[in-house]
Specification:
This protein has about 230 residues and is mainly α. Helix content is about 60%, strand content about 0%. The chain is elongated, with a radius of gyration of 23 Å.
């Protein structure tokens, strides 16, 4: 038993020394690339899509949740900039897919807003909380709808995004799509059970909003699904 204990301790020491050597090697390589080891450079490398540098930062022990002054993590900026390989590295390194910036925004919201479908798929595979909202009550589904990114709208709905969630003004994703006159998102939302007669804080329904914006096709779509004034 004593020999087993000694062997275990020896292996632990070897692993520790190996890890330290790996950290030092990664930091030395960053120096060679003229990149200082700090949180700001880590996040900026992620934004620029410098996968080599991001991997070196991670190998050197950088905290994946390092933030900018406005609370942006490396994952958030990489997602917004459509840096697919960096997003993969960060998720593999344990980055928190539900981390929030100072506006309560997440990486998924940014990717959905920008229409970065591949990044959205990567983030969805990491199991994000789809009910999360920013400080205006907007969720990822609403961002995707607002910019007419139908494939992302469908991906979010298929993963279980709440179709009738509301923002701070009581607007649903369907109301947003109706305001913009986007037929494909409207259809996708209706097919997933969007409440066609839900009312905003001002008492407006999606069809009323569409009528105000003179989106006649949307008005007809909604009325065909039972919309009333």
């Amino acid at each position: 038993m004593k020999r087993t204990l000694l062997l275990s301790l020896a292996l632990a020491v070897i692993a520790l020394l190996t890890g330290c050597a790996s950290d030092e090697k990664a930091r030395a390589e960053l120096v060679r690339l003229n990149i200082d080891y700090n949180e700001s450079n880590f996040v900026e490398s992620a934004r620029q899509g410098n996968a080599e540098a991001v991997k070196l930062f991670l190998d050197a022990g950088m905290n994946t949740e390092a933030r900018t002054r406005d609370g942006q993590t490396a994952l958030m900026v990489a997602a917004q900039a459509n840096q697919v390989e960096v997003v993969k590295l960060l998720l593999q390194g344990g980055a928190d897919v539900n981390a929030k910036n100072k506006y309560d925004g997440t990486a998924l919201m940014s990717a959905a807003w920008k229409g970065h479908a591949e990044v959205v798929d990567l983030l969805l595979a990491a199991g994000p909380d789809l009910s999360m909202k920013d400080n205006r009550g907007m969720n990822a589904l609403m961002f995707a709808v607002w910019e007419n990114h139908t494939p992302i709208v469908k991906a979010l709905l298929n993963k279980g995004a709440e179709v009738n969630a509301t923002d701070a003004n009581g607007w649903t994703a369907l109301m947003r799509a109706s305001f913009k006159g986007y037929s494909e998102p409207v259809i996708a939302l209706l097919e997933k059970g969007a409440d066609v007669n839900a009312r905003s804080n001002e008492g407006k329904t999606a069809v009323r909003i569409a009528e105000e914006q003179r989106h006649t096709q949307i008005v007809q779509l909604l009325k065909d699904r039972g919309a009333t004034e």
